[in-house]
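Working notes for the structural subgroup meeting. M.R. asked for a predicted model of this chain before we commit to crystallization trials. I am recording the input and output together here so anyone reviewing the notebook later can reproduce the run.

Input as submitted:
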Amino acid sequence: MQSSLNRSDPLKDAAASTAADESAGEPENLRLVAMMKSDPGNAVELLYARFSNDVNRLVWRLLGADPDHSDIVQQVFFKVMRHGHRLREPKKLRAWVQSITVNTVYEELRKRDVRRLFVRQWPVGVHPDLVHDVEARDVVLRVRSLIERLPAKERVVFVLHFVEERTLNEVAELCGYSVATAKRRLKAANRRFESLLTKNPDLARLLTERESKP
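Returned structure, recorded in token form:
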């Protein structure tokens, strides 16, 4: 069974897809990877300029409005620079940065008390296209409250697949899992979310109505 989030308009935004073909930027990737070793000061500025949108969006998607957002983003780029020598295929630089982002967020989740993981408000002025009207905002907040109740491992794969709209293979790569493990955790997350949704029939109805709209 596919999650009711799969086509839920309120959880989509106008951010550009990060699934762009890496081969188009391979020369720049090669240059950046080389600079990480020879000129780290300038490399980190170029890396931030190129990938900050990707990193910020992923952190926001996975954590919601979080007071430690900026610190986590900084941690990501610190790890990128620290572990740059491990990257064997420069053409996969973007996917590698995204994978570090996901792992950094997951590490943060593990440190926190599940009941205090996420604030229950969306940031004012961020992604305004997510909230078109009062009903849409209510749906977003209520769906977020259900997602907050998923265990960290399940939450990460759930958000990547149903909110970020990543394929199962992409989820597995970003999380460092086998496809089988990613599929198992996604199935568990979906089952848990659907179970929570059955206890909120009015929300389930609203999501179904939104799915049926052309």
